[in-house]
Amino acid sequence: MKPIFIRLSVLVFALLMAVPGSAQYTTEFFATEISDTNAREAISRSLSALLTEFNNAQGNHRPLQLENIAITPEAKGDLLKLWKDCPFRCAETEVVESAGKNSGGDYQLRNIPLIMMPVEGESKDVSWKKYQEGVFTVSPQGTVTGFHLAIDASLYIKVMGSAAAVEDFVQRQLILEYVERFRNSYNLKDINFLQQIFSDDALIITGKVITTVKSDVNRMSINNKKVVYSKQTKKEYLTKLERIFRANKRINVLFDDIKVMRHPAKPNFYGVTLKQGYSSDHYSDEGYLFLLWDFTNPDAPQIHVRTWQPDKIGDVTMPEDEIFSVDDFDI
Predict the structure, then answer these.
(1) For the chain, first and last CA: distance in Å?
(2) Which band of pLDDT confidence, cut at 50, 70 and 90, is reported for residue 163?
(3) Radius of gyration, CA atoms only, the chain
(4) Does pTM top 0.85 for this prediction?
(5) Topology of domain 191-328, CATH
(6) Which fold does the domain 19-150 belong to in CATH?
(7) What is the rounded CA–CA span in Å between residue 193 and residue 189?
């Protein structure tokens, strides 16, 4: 039965990809794994209404109309920011997904299939992956309290199934949620979130490749090229980032790989290493992003260290032992 379901899902997806921009359709959402019948039905109704509104608004090339949707101002703001540059619709007419309860008592629902449709004039090949998945957080009463785009499902499974990397399931879920929100803060140009998430004494390190003379000896030197690093304070980094946000209509950040490690001496500190792709109106790159997270307060985690390194030094891939990790920093 499962192979048939998969083939049908692929067929529906293919048909919807071919739907003209003016087409509209209803999406019915069914939440599962919620024992409270009232909560299950309320969540299903809310997400059915919201996903159908995505379809109608995108099909009619109009703004989202959320007046009749149960949604918090914060979640509404995140949706509208993303919609401004890249409207989207649901890729299915029926979605069935299990819900997981978070530490705050709300339910998280993942794997919501979305077709991203960049606004007129935007590159449909470079700006966005056309197929992405949404993550919704919904209260037991059916109010949407959060929304963001998910990291690739394979990366999510990799971390959630890795007991050796992080012992606690809830903690792993929290780490991934904040990694996804961190990624979305760049896509949404949400400087306020970044102001909150970086600690006041955060260390920001950025690497770039330069060409050296033959006599220059450096442990990172490969084929007369080496990586040099510059340090910034939180204020310096965010001031520069604000200018970048203002200068670019769109910014898109994608993660292709992820490793999570608990700090050997600090049980609430985690190092997260990501293979990152970055593109904007005027610039693009690929490299390794390392974040040292402090989850001592799970309601307000902090980033103490952010590093970025290019993935290649000239034509040579960055050696694995040169990529920053949790072992490189004393706390």
Answers:
(1) 53
(2) low
(3) 21
(4) no
(5) Nuclear Transport Factor 2; Chain: A, (3.10.450)
(6) Nuclear Transport Factor 2; Chain: A, (3.10.450)
(7) 9
